[in-house]
Amino acid sequence: MENIYYPHKGVVKEIKEETPKIKTYRLKLDKKLSFRAGQFMQLTVPGVGEAPFTPSSSPGEVEEMEITIMRTGRVTSVLHKEVKVGDFLGLRGPFGKGYPIEKFIGKEILIVGGGVGLAPLRSLIYALFDRIEEIKQIYICYGAKSPEDQCFKDEYKDWERKKKVSLNLTIDESHPKWKGTVGLVTCLLEKDYLKKIGIDIKNSYVVSCGPDVMLKFVTFKLLEVGFKPEQIYLSMNRRMSCGFGKCARCNIGPYYLCKDGPDMCYADIKDYPNVFC
Ligand SMILES: Cc1cc2nc3c(=O)[nH]c(=O)nc-3n(C[C@H](O)[C@H](O)[C@H](O)COP(=O)(O)OP(=O)(O)OC[C@H]3O[C@@H](n4cnc5c(N)ncnc54)[C@H](O)[C@@H]3O)c2cc1C
Ligand code: FES
Prior knowledge:
By secondary structure, this protein is α/β, with parallel strands linked by helices. It contains 8 helices and 15 strands. The model has no long low-confidence stretch (mean pLDDT 94).
Protein backbone atom coordinates (compact mmCIF):
# COMPACT_ATOMS: atom_id res chain seq x y z
CA MET A 1 0.00 0.00 0.00
CA GLU A 2 1.16 3.55 -0.80
CA ASN A 3 2.51 5.47 2.25
CA ILE A 4 0.76 8.86 2.25
CA TYR A 5 3.54 10.41 4.34
CA TYR A 6 6.19 9.46 1.79
CA PRO A 7 6.75 12.13 -0.88
CA HIS A 8 7.40 11.38 -4.53
CA LYS A 9 10.19 13.28 -6.23
CA GLY A 10 9.66 15.93 -8.87
CA VAL A 11 12.71 17.32 -10.65
CA VAL A 12 12.28 20.96 -11.72
CA LYS A 13 12.41 20.96 -15.53
CA GLU A 14 11.36 24.54 -16.22
CA ILE A 15 10.45 27.67 -14.26
CA LYS A 16 8.28 30.32 -15.85
CA GLU A 17 7.73 33.74 -14.34
CA GLU A 18 4.01 34.44 -14.76
CA THR A 19 3.98 37.72 -12.78
CA PRO A 20 6.46 39.41 -10.41
CA LYS A 21 5.03 37.25 -7.55
CA ILE A 22 3.87 34.09 -9.33
CA LYS A 23 5.95 31.34 -10.96
CA THR A 24 4.98 28.11 -12.69
CA TYR A 25 7.20 25.10 -11.97
CA ARG A 26 7.18 22.22 -14.45
CA LEU A 27 8.22 19.05 -12.62
CA LYS A 28 9.37 15.74 -14.13
CA LEU A 29 7.87 13.11 -11.84
CA ASP A 30 9.79 10.06 -10.60
CA LYS A 31 6.72 7.93 -11.38
CA LYS A 32 3.40 8.45 -13.16
CA LEU A 33 0.92 10.35 -11.04
CA SER A 34 -2.78 10.69 -11.85
CA PHE A 35 -4.97 13.35 -10.33
CA ARG A 36 -8.37 14.91 -10.91
CA ALA A 37 -8.62 18.64 -11.66
CA GLY A 38 -9.00 20.43 -8.32
CA GLN A 39 -7.20 17.81 -6.23
CA PHE A 40 -4.14 19.18 -4.45
CA MET A 41 -0.59 18.10 -3.62
CA GLN A 42 1.49 18.72 -0.52
CA LEU A 43 4.73 20.08 -1.97
CA THR A 44 7.95 19.88 0.03
CA VAL A 45 10.90 22.19 -0.40
CA PRO A 46 13.63 19.99 1.11
CA GLY A 47 14.97 21.39 4.39
CA VAL A 48 12.33 24.15 4.47
CA GLY A 49 8.83 22.73 4.72
CA GLU A 50 5.64 21.62 3.06
CA ALA A 51 2.65 23.56 1.68
CA PRO A 52 -0.50 22.64 -0.31
CA PHE A 53 -0.87 23.53 -3.99
CA THR A 54 -3.27 22.43 -6.71
CA PRO A 55 -1.61 21.43 -9.99
CA SER A 56 -2.26 23.92 -12.79
CA SER A 57 -1.51 21.46 -15.60
CA SER A 58 -3.83 19.09 -17.41
CA PRO A 59 -4.86 16.00 -15.42
CA GLY A 60 -4.15 14.13 -18.66
CA GLU A 61 -0.40 14.65 -18.12
CA VAL A 62 0.87 11.93 -15.79
CA GLU A 63 4.65 12.08 -16.20
CA GLU A 64 5.04 15.81 -15.65
CA MET A 65 3.09 18.30 -13.57
CA GLU A 66 2.90 22.08 -13.44
CA ILE A 67 2.31 23.91 -10.18
CA THR A 68 1.80 27.66 -10.20
CA ILE A 69 2.88 29.32 -6.98
CA MET A 70 2.50 32.78 -5.53
CA ARG A 71 5.16 34.03 -3.11
CA THR A 72 3.45 34.63 0.24
CA GLY A 73 5.60 33.39 3.14
CA ARG A 74 8.36 31.07 4.30
CA VAL A 75 8.11 28.05 1.98
CA THR A 76 7.06 29.97 -1.12
CA SER A 77 9.78 32.62 -0.65
CA VAL A 78 12.55 30.00 -0.51
CA LEU A 79 10.99 28.26 -3.48
CA HIS A 80 10.96 31.47 -5.54
CA LYS A 81 14.42 32.62 -4.49
CA GLU A 82 16.47 29.43 -4.28
CA VAL A 83 14.94 26.56 -6.25
CA LYS A 84 16.46 26.20 -9.72
CA VAL A 85 16.07 23.97 -12.78
CA GLY A 86 17.52 20.54 -11.89
CA ASP A 87 16.62 20.74 -8.17
CA PHE A 88 14.10 18.30 -6.77
CA LEU A 89 10.95 18.88 -4.74
CA GLY A 90 8.80 16.42 -2.79
CA LEU A 91 5.17 15.75 -3.64
CA ARG A 92 2.55 13.96 -1.51
CA GLY A 93 -0.91 13.34 -2.78
CA PRO A 94 -3.16 13.88 -4.63
CA PHE A 95 -5.57 14.81 -1.85
CA GLY A 96 -9.19 15.95 -1.84
CA LYS A 97 -12.01 15.16 -4.23
CA GLY A 98 -11.45 17.54 -7.12
CA TYR A 99 -14.13 19.22 -9.22
CA PRO A 100 -17.31 17.20 -9.93
CA ILE A 101 -16.70 17.12 -13.70
CA GLU A 102 -19.37 14.44 -14.33
CA LYS A 103 -21.98 16.92 -13.11
CA PHE A 104 -20.78 19.44 -15.70
CA ILE A 105 -21.62 17.24 -18.69
CA GLY A 106 -24.30 18.90 -20.86
CA LYS A 107 -24.05 22.13 -18.88
CA GLU A 108 -22.62 25.62 -19.34
CA ILE A 109 -19.68 26.22 -17.01
CA LEU A 110 -18.85 29.65 -15.65
CA ILE A 111 -15.29 29.76 -14.32
CA VAL A 112 -14.53 32.74 -12.09
CA GLY A 113 -10.93 33.30 -11.03
CA GLY A 114 -8.96 35.97 -9.24
CA GLY A 115 -5.16 36.35 -9.16
CA VAL A 116 -3.31 33.07 -8.63
CA GLY A 117 -6.77 31.44 -8.28
CA LEU A 118 -6.63 30.89 -12.04
CA ALA A 119 -3.96 28.20 -11.39
CA PRO A 120 -6.25 25.39 -10.14
CA LEU A 121 -8.87 26.55 -12.63
CA ARG A 122 -6.42 26.17 -15.52
CA SER A 123 -6.25 22.45 -14.74
CA LEU A 124 -10.07 22.36 -14.85
CA ILE A 125 -10.06 24.37 -18.10
CA TYR A 126 -7.76 21.77 -19.71
CA ALA A 127 -9.91 18.91 -18.36
CA LEU A 128 -13.01 20.57 -19.87
CA PHE A 129 -11.21 21.19 -23.20
CA ASP A 130 -10.55 17.42 -23.31
CA ARG A 131 -14.32 16.80 -23.06
CA ILE A 132 -15.48 19.86 -24.98
CA GLU A 133 -17.96 17.85 -27.09
CA GLU A 134 -19.85 16.95 -23.90
CA ILE A 135 -19.86 20.49 -22.45
CA LYS A 136 -22.32 23.13 -23.70
CA GLN A 137 -20.17 26.22 -23.26
CA ILE A 138 -17.30 27.49 -21.08
CA TYR A 139 -17.24 31.11 -19.88
CA ILE A 140 -13.96 32.11 -18.23
CA CYS A 141 -14.10 35.30 -16.15
CA TYR A 142 -10.74 36.32 -14.72
CA GLY A 143 -9.70 39.33 -12.69
CA ALA A 144 -6.18 40.48 -11.84
CA LYS A 145 -4.80 43.65 -10.27
CA SER A 146 -3.08 44.84 -13.46
CA PRO A 147 -1.96 43.43 -16.85
CA GLU A 148 1.39 42.52 -15.21
CA ASP A 149 -0.48 40.44 -12.61
CA GLN A 150 -2.34 38.24 -15.11
CA CYS A 151 -1.39 34.55 -15.01
CA PHE A 152 -1.01 32.45 -18.18
CA LYS A 153 -1.19 35.49 -20.52
CA ASP A 154 0.39 33.68 -23.47
CA GLU A 155 -2.44 31.13 -23.46
CA TYR A 156 -5.38 33.53 -23.73
CA LYS A 157 -5.32 33.66 -27.55
CA ASP A 158 -5.42 29.85 -27.76
CA TRP A 159 -8.27 29.66 -25.27
CA GLU A 160 -10.28 32.28 -27.17
CA ARG A 161 -9.78 30.42 -30.44
CA LYS A 162 -11.37 27.24 -29.04
CA LYS A 163 -14.96 26.60 -29.94
CA LYS A 164 -17.48 26.95 -27.09
CA VAL A 165 -15.11 29.16 -25.07
CA SER A 166 -15.69 32.76 -24.03
CA LEU A 167 -12.79 34.50 -22.26
CA ASN A 168 -13.60 37.63 -20.23
CA LEU A 169 -10.84 39.57 -18.53
CA THR A 170 -10.80 42.53 -16.20
CA ILE A 171 -8.18 44.41 -14.22
CA ASP A 172 -8.83 46.24 -10.95
CA GLU A 173 -7.81 49.76 -12.03
CA SER A 174 -7.21 51.47 -15.37
CA HIS A 175 -3.73 51.01 -16.77
CA PRO A 176 -2.00 52.53 -19.84
CA LYS A 177 -1.37 49.05 -21.32
CA TRP A 178 -4.99 47.90 -20.91
CA LYS A 179 -7.88 48.53 -23.27
CA GLY A 180 -10.31 46.00 -21.83
CA THR A 181 -12.75 45.95 -18.91
CA VAL A 182 -11.73 47.69 -15.68
CA GLY A 183 -13.21 46.73 -12.31
CA LEU A 184 -13.26 43.85 -9.84
CA VAL A 185 -14.10 40.42 -11.24
CA THR A 186 -17.69 40.80 -9.98
CA CYS A 187 -18.24 43.38 -12.75
CA LEU A 188 -18.12 40.43 -15.20
CA LEU A 189 -20.98 38.83 -13.26
CA GLU A 190 -23.44 41.72 -13.51
CA LYS A 191 -26.76 40.68 -15.05
CA ASP A 192 -26.22 42.82 -18.17
CA TYR A 193 -22.73 41.42 -18.75
CA LEU A 194 -23.91 37.81 -18.35
CA LYS A 195 -26.75 38.55 -20.77
CA LYS A 196 -24.26 40.01 -23.26
CA ILE A 197 -22.07 36.90 -23.21
CA GLY A 198 -25.20 34.75 -23.44
CA ILE A 199 -25.00 32.50 -20.44
CA ASP A 200 -28.01 30.31 -19.66
CA ILE A 201 -28.05 30.70 -15.87
CA LYS A 202 -30.55 27.91 -15.28
CA ASN A 203 -28.44 25.36 -17.16
CA SER A 204 -25.04 26.15 -15.69
CA TYR A 205 -22.60 25.52 -12.89
CA VAL A 206 -20.11 28.03 -11.53
CA VAL A 207 -16.64 27.21 -10.25
CA SER A 208 -14.68 29.93 -8.48
CA CYS A 209 -11.19 30.16 -7.02
CA GLY A 210 -9.43 33.19 -5.57
CA PRO A 211 -8.85 35.04 -2.31
CA ASP A 212 -11.47 34.55 0.45
CA VAL A 213 -12.79 38.08 0.08
CA MET A 214 -13.26 37.60 -3.65
CA LEU A 215 -15.10 34.29 -3.14
CA LYS A 216 -17.44 36.04 -0.74
CA PHE A 217 -18.41 38.86 -3.10
CA VAL A 218 -18.51 36.56 -6.14
CA THR A 219 -20.93 34.26 -4.28
CA PHE A 220 -23.18 37.15 -3.23
CA LYS A 221 -23.22 38.53 -6.79
CA LEU A 222 -24.02 35.08 -8.25
CA LEU A 223 -26.95 34.69 -5.85
CA GLU A 224 -28.13 38.21 -6.69
CA VAL A 225 -28.21 37.49 -10.44
CA GLY A 226 -30.13 34.26 -10.01
CA PHE A 227 -27.74 31.36 -9.46
CA LYS A 228 -28.79 28.85 -6.78
CA PRO A 229 -26.39 27.72 -4.02
CA GLU A 230 -26.46 24.20 -5.57
CA GLN A 231 -24.93 25.61 -8.79
CA ILE A 232 -21.93 27.24 -7.10
CA TYR A 233 -18.62 25.48 -6.34
CA LEU A 234 -15.97 27.35 -4.36
CA SER A 235 -12.30 26.36 -3.96
CA MET A 236 -11.77 26.70 -0.21
CA ASN A 237 -7.97 26.86 -0.15
CA ARG A 238 -7.54 27.33 3.57
CA ARG A 239 -4.58 26.48 5.76
CA MET A 240 -4.03 22.73 5.80
CA SER A 241 -1.61 20.37 7.42
CA CYS A 242 -2.09 16.60 7.14
CA GLY A 243 -4.15 16.75 3.90
CA PHE A 244 -6.32 13.71 4.68
CA GLY A 245 -8.74 14.48 7.49
CA LYS A 246 -6.70 13.74 10.61
CA CYS A 247 -5.47 17.02 12.11
CA ALA A 248 -8.81 18.92 12.13
CA ARG A 249 -7.13 22.07 10.83
CA CYS A 250 -9.37 22.73 7.89
CA ASN A 251 -12.99 22.11 8.82
CA ILE A 252 -16.16 24.02 7.95
CA GLY A 253 -18.94 22.50 10.02
CA PRO A 254 -18.70 18.72 9.60
CA TYR A 255 -16.60 18.97 6.42
CA TYR A 256 -12.84 18.61 6.21
CA LEU A 257 -11.81 20.75 3.27
CA CYS A 258 -8.76 18.58 2.59
CA LYS A 259 -10.86 15.41 2.34
CA ASP A 260 -14.33 16.59 1.30
CA GLY A 261 -13.09 19.57 -0.78
CA PRO A 262 -11.19 21.75 -1.28
CA ASP A 263 -13.89 22.55 -3.88
CA MET A 264 -17.17 22.73 -1.99
CA CYS A 265 -20.71 23.19 -3.19
CA TYR A 266 -21.97 26.40 -1.57
CA ALA A 267 -25.30 24.70 -0.75
CA ASP A 268 -23.44 22.30 1.57
CA ILE A 269 -21.49 24.90 3.53
CA LYS A 270 -23.54 28.10 3.40
CA ASP A 271 -25.11 27.75 6.85
CA TYR A 272 -21.83 27.33 8.77
CA PRO A 273 -20.27 30.40 10.41
CA ASN A 274 -16.72 30.29 9.04
CA VAL A 275 -17.40 29.95 5.30
CA PHE A 276 -15.86 33.31 4.41
CA CYS A 277 -13.34 34.17 7.12
C1 LIG B 1 -5.82 23.11 -1.25
C2 LIG B 1 -4.96 24.30 -1.47
C3 LIG B 1 -4.51 24.60 -2.74
C4 LIG B 1 -3.69 25.72 -2.95
N1 LIG B 1 -3.25 25.96 -4.21
C5 LIG B 1 -2.42 26.99 -4.43
C6 LIG B 1 -1.89 27.22 -5.73
O1 LIG B 1 -2.18 26.50 -6.70
N2 LIG B 1 -1.03 28.27 -5.87
C7 LIG B 1 -0.68 29.09 -4.82
O2 LIG B 1 0.11 30.02 -5.02
N3 LIG B 1 -1.17 28.89 -3.60
C8 LIG B 1 -2.02 27.85 -3.36
N4 LIG B 1 -2.49 27.63 -2.10
C9 LIG B 1 -2.04 28.52 -1.00
C10 LIG B 1 -0.67 28.05 -0.49
O3 LIG B 1 -0.83 26.78 0.12
C11 LIG B 1 -0.10 29.04 0.51
O4 LIG B 1 0.17 30.25 -0.14
C12 LIG B 1 1.18 28.48 1.11
O5 LIG B 1 0.84 27.43 2.00
C13 LIG B 1 1.96 29.55 1.84
O6 LIG B 1 3.07 28.92 2.42
P1 LIG B 1 4.29 29.76 2.98
O7 LIG B 1 5.09 28.88 3.90
O8 LIG B 1 5.04 30.39 1.87
O9 LIG B 1 3.58 30.91 3.77
P2 LIG B 1 3.38 31.05 5.37
O10 LIG B 1 4.69 31.47 5.94
O11 LIG B 1 2.74 29.79 5.91
O12 LIG B 1 2.29 32.21 5.41
C14 LIG B 1 2.51 33.45 4.79
C15 LIG B 1 1.23 34.22 4.62
O13 LIG B 1 0.32 33.53 3.77
C16 LIG B 1 -0.89 33.26 4.44
N5 LIG B 1 -1.30 31.92 4.05
C17 LIG B 1 -0.69 30.76 4.30
N6 LIG B 1 -1.42 29.73 3.80
C18 LIG B 1 -2.50 30.29 3.20
C19 LIG B 1 -3.62 29.76 2.50
N7 LIG B 1 -3.80 28.47 2.33
N8 LIG B 1 -4.52 30.64 2.01
C20 LIG B 1 -4.38 31.94 2.20
N9 LIG B 1 -3.35 32.50 2.86
C21 LIG B 1 -2.42 31.68 3.36
C22 LIG B 1 -0.58 33.36 5.90
O14 LIG B 1 -1.72 33.71 6.66
C23 LIG B 1 0.48 34.43 5.91
O15 LIG B 1 -0.08 35.71 5.86
C24 LIG B 1 -3.33 26.55 -1.87
C25 LIG B 1 -3.80 26.26 -0.59
C26 LIG B 1 -4.61 25.15 -0.39
C27 LIG B 1 -5.08 24.83 0.98
S1 FES C 1 -5.59 19.33 6.77
FE1 FES C 1 -5.69 17.91 8.43
S2 FES C 1 -7.78 17.54 8.63
FE2 FES C 1 -7.66 18.77 6.85
